[in-house]
Predict the structure.
Amino acid sequence: MGLHKAAQKQDPGRGWYLAAAATAITFALQLGGDEVREALAYSREYLALGEFWRLATGHFVHLGWTHLLLNLAGLALVGWLVGPAYNWREWLFITGISLATIDAGFWFLYPELAWYVGLSGLLHGLLTAGLFPRLLARDRESLVLVAFVAAKLVWEQTGGPLPGSEATSGGTVIVDAHLYGALGGFIAAYLMWRRVRPKSPI
């Protein structure tokens, strides 16, 4: 059974609330122009000065309209593939864990990163978390998609951004955001699975 069809057997309305909210927020922030982006971007310098809101807001501002629209297209694709996997509270939890993992990775493992914007890291977290239950169910299409995501992450870590991705987005692609985001999504999905999995009989 295909990934999307299997997911639709659950409540098909799940998962779209946060996607719609994220779309509205990112559009509104983009309308604010360069000043808003500079004020909200992940910035190591300003975080060190106590501007901690940047840990969250940096993921919702973009380099430009093309960058934004590409990320929103990615968000729509993730929603279509795995949106019904969780309810909005669970997606909110996954979002929080993914963002925290990305930010921690940037701060502790990537200290040379001075500045970052964009949803792409979070998208990798959402997709990874959404695939987790389908992977446990050994859905064949999901296995293929997991393999694709894993291969993409390996490529980026060994060979850099995918060809054409930087030209399309209009700036440097921070591939570590994708890795940290995927890790965060996996952690969140695993924690939820541990909480609800059937207990073994004594």
